[in-house]
Predict the 3D structure of the following.
Amino acid sequence: MRRISSFFMNMKLRSKFLLSFTAIIFVTVLMISVVNYVVSIGAIKRNSGEFSEYLIGQIGINLEKRTKDIEEIAFQQFRSSSLSERLSQTDTSEETIYFRNKYINDFMSELMFTKEDFLAVMIIDVNEKPYLVQRQTFHQYDQELLQRLDIDAVQQKRGKPVWFQGEHGTVFMVRAMFDIPTAKYVGMIAIGLDSSYISSIITNVNQLMDGDILILNENNELFVPDLKHSGVAHFFLDNKLYLANESKNSLAYNGSQYISTVVSTLYDKWKIVQIIDVKQLTRDTDSIKYWTISTILVSLLIAFLMAVFISKNITENIRLLLQSMTSFSLDFNHHVIVPKSRDEVGLLAAKFNSMADKINDLFNSVYREKLLKQKAEYRTLQFEYKALQAQMNPHFLYNTLESVYSMAKIKGEEEIGEMIYLLGKLLRESIGKKGDVLTLQEEISFIQSYLSIHKMIYGDKIEVVYRLDDELMDCRVPKFILQPLVENAVIHGIEAKPGKGVIHIICRAEEEDLIIEVADNGIGMDEEMVERLLNPERYGTIIDSNKHTNVGIISVHKRAKILYGDKYGLSIQSKSGEGTTVQIRLPILDGGHSRD
């Protein structure tokens, strides 16, 4: 590790820039791409699971409705008929038996043709004698039903329907019948249906999402098994994984991962299960992977070319300066450097040109004079270098703030980025503007940026209202004449006030004078405090509990009086608990001359 560090430290500056830019961009692009890929895969799995749960929930609703329709048809037909009385007859005469059997057959025939999906209708009386009507006579539905039917278990259900699967593409619904007035058991009714009546629900859903769909009845028996199921479905049933507490579970089968979703209907009458292969869910993510890799490679190529260009541009002046210094150190023969740019290094090269020229002039003088001049030149160079450093520091700070602002925008931190942008703008305006006066428009712009930062800090606690006369915006005012007043309104007025604070900034003309007001609805102050602010020579400087002095307001008051006379300066109106209005009076100056 030390050897690698030493190797990097000894590299040329251009190679360091190139390697650094490439590494930073590579890490950034790689992290963003990997995170996006992982998040995309997770979102696909999560959304697919939720969609699967919704689909089988709809299957459960449709299944509940379809089976409920059959149950209601049978019950309503029984309730509206005299079947209960016929089944309860004890007369054994031939005539009674004939009419009894005829009524039962007519009832079954009428029920048979109420729905085209009915294949057979069977009634079993209290003596367990079966009566059957069926559409296809070559099917022995009665034998199939009686082999699977547990009469005692159905009777104990007290009229609750029992559903189970037949062997020849049929499903059966069986329910016990009780006489309504006496609640006496009179027999049971069974209806055989074509299994497509149920399986068509699943067929429609399979067109939306691949996977196995299983329907289990209340005894956890497979319902409609004529659907084709994969090995993982049989594995799921054999291991009774449908009994798990969670509705969504993961399972492994033959080296593949699956997601199972189980939804139960009301009273656990049905369980609907969907088993989906994770590979099927993520089969379309290969394109994401390829696009991610392609994006990384293209980004690296572009970044490398940009890094080559930028590093060469940055180091070109340094290379020229190094060559000139090497030549000068050998024979004191200076070749003038022509900087490729006017950045800090270019300025340094220009200073070196100047220094080298002066050194060459010194060699034509007496050694002592030359030595003294060299020392003086060295001191001058030091002073110029420090001045250059002082010039570089603001630029460095601007560039740093702009870099932080760009990083905040990239990371989605809009509020932080805006605050950094405003701070950089304030710093540029405060340091960049030369001279002691500027236009009122520039001063208001500075205050707007300053208050924007405070509004971001305090949120909705601060509201600013501007009432400005556009004709006065070109008036010349002392630099930073408003900032101390606004800062005092925020810190001493609104910050300590509960609730929302409002600052009014107003400018208007009054005869030949410019009136600027900064008003707030803060905590205010008493008359003694106002007197102390306007007459510090009598009372001394005020320091409040938050360690914020009022030197700024005092300075504004004194500057106005010194610059323009005793007529001008501050006036303060304030009342404790209601707010403060600070008014500054200045002459109207336009381009350095007062308005006529």
About this structure: The longest helix spans residues 13-79. The longest strand covers residues 185-194. The chain has a mean pLDDT of 77.
